[in-house]
Amino acid sequence: MCLAIPGKVLEIDRSATPLMGTVSFGGVEKRICLEWLPEVVPGEYVIVHVGFAISKMDEEEAMQTLQILREAGELWDESERRGQRQDVPPGAPPSDPS
Questions:
Q1: What confidence tens digit (pLDDT) does each residue in 46-89 have?
Q2: If DSSP codes are grouped into helix, strand and coil, which group holds residue 79?
Q3: How far apart are CA 30 and CA 23, in angstroms?
Q4: Backbone phi, then psi, for 74, in 5-degree steps?
Q5: Which pairs count as long-range contacts for 81-88, CB under 8 Å and 24+ apart, including other chains?
Q6: Which of 13, 35, 67, 71 supports an S-S bond with 18, CB 3.0-4.6 Å?
Q7: Reported pTM
Q8: What are the structural domains, with CATH classification, of the chain?
Q9: Are 28 and 69 a contacting pair, CB within 8 Å?
Q10: H-type alpha helices, 1-98
């Protein structure tokens, strides 16, 4: 499964080839390729997949998506604590609960 995550463009390095910028994902900042979105400006939100900004997104939609991802992460963590995760293949060693 592939997942693209919304992030906020903080700064753009227009001297870089390819075009690069710093994008914040809820406080975690990463250097991302912006080459496919040369019109993007700081403050806008982009969808990022494997280090490449692939489309722009409005702030409201980005906030909704990030909230859904946070909730999914909380559900994932809770099911892992209870030993109920369904994604672990049969015979795999149990995860360390600590």
A1: 999 999 999 999 999 999 998 998 888 877 777 777 766 555 55
A2: helix
A3: 5
A4: -65, -40
A5: none
A6: 35
A7: 0.73
A8: 5-81 (2.30.30.140)
A9: no
A10: 59-81
